[in-house]
Request: fold
Amino acid sequence: MRHSLVIVGAGPRGAGLVERIAANAPELYAGPGLDIHLVDPYPPGAGRVWRAAQSPLLWMNSHAGDVTVFTDDTVDMAGPVHEGPTLHEWAGIDGRTFADRRLQGGYLRWAHERAVAALPPSVTVHHHPRRALRVGGPRTGRQQVWLQDRPRPLLADLVVLALGHLDAEPDDEQRALTAYAGEHGLVHLPPDFTADSDLSALRPGEPVLVRGLGLAFVDLMVLLTEGRGGRYEGDAYVPSGREPVLYVGSRSGVPYHAKIGYDWNGERPPLPRFFGPAETAELLSRPEGFDFRRDVWPLVEKELGFAHYHRLFTAHPERTAVAWTDFEEKYAAAGDAAERETLVASAVPDPRDRLDLAALDRPLDGVRYASSAEFQEGLREHVEAGLDRRHDPSHSPDLAVFLALLSVYGQLLRLGNTGPWWHGFFSRLASGPPGPRLRQLLALSRAGVLHFVGAGMTVDAEGGVFRASSPTVPGFSVAARALVEARLPEPTVRRARDPLLRELYREGAAETPDGLLRVDRLDGRILDRNGEPHPRRFALGPHTDGRTPGAFTRPRTGGPAFRQNDATARAALVFLRDLGRPAAG
Reply:
């Protein structure tokens, strides 16, 4: 009898699993034929986010040379390396290009087709352009995967959930705001994937409050300006007259830091140094558990500082006052952040060369402006300075910190529970928009199409309108009849709109304190609330506590997602190979 593997979600993660199955099958699977069923209403490879049917104005968030879907010898995995081209090599474009998402979708579809062609002849792939509604079946027997508009379920020896980013039911605040909008004839757009949002209700010339300054906001900005016929001429924006007027704020009050615009050269910091496997193992061994802020953050902070100062001392020694060997010894011995700050003050004369993580994360904390006009000018200067720095190799310690952030994220994956704060901190520092997008934001600000509200932005529903204010500009507020939540929905198990995931939770699947699906660290098997892995159900991706940084892997950076895909593929193939074999003994 042929075996059956159902993969729910055929986007980059599901397609990546197929690639690892193709790579490992010659070694591990010599059993009967295997049917791989890909269940996804969107095209395999590209999936929802990278589908062809979207605006060509929407870009990737990474340089084309920094995007690969293929393994290399830096990936710590048991399976074989199958190398392939990066996006820029495949597309024949400059590696510094920020490609549009439709081009990336073409790359993903091509890579998926290559992986399918590499499968053994006994393995057949079927695509079901439907949604999966429910997974049932006994723990020790074949699973049943029920699909939309299909009377009978797919039978599966194994099921892998590669669901990607998920829609979510609104929380109490969002429901109240939507109800208020309905009562007063207002517009409220809750968290959503901007490319899928209906923006037609945001009318030309009218003020719109926007809460969020991350990547979802960048997409919104593009679709409401260039997407409505505006254009850029040099550093100026020429409105079409169809744009609304955006008033934008967030917790930090500033856009994410732009992508770094230069390449690494010279010696890399030896990472991990203070937060590696040994430290992770020690934290996991504590019977009382650990607290992220108390126990983990000091290690992260020291690791990021080490990378920063290693680069400063080795690449820019003229800006330091002592030898690196002396500094490194004292830095390693420093017991807390206060000791390190004293050491740095004596060894690094210019404060601009010192790493200040709090200022990078929340630069407006405690800052006040006398008027909104002064704040607009001040924030434009802040964004300009950040852009200049991110494109200046003399500030290459910033790139070293980026490398350390990737290293840290790899260790945090082993710990599991880091809370949502870390993911936001990482995104603000390491996963910001392309530099040209911030140049456009500045042009929109100068043109009066976009206004900054400030840090700690609050929105009140009162007097038949929405009203936004911020302590950054005391006494200032702005009223509007439209409010947009410019952020992705939180991928929590309980509030996911995906019925399959909600049903798994009701049946006993475990979740983390921040609402992610708990999976086994070794191979991605779904854990129940007793910590027991399900023998026939796996999960990979951002809805799990094994989520990895960024949408795609940079070449030659170890690729935690590749390692996870490989481990899951191998576990699945071994299970299917041994299925039905008589027990030894």
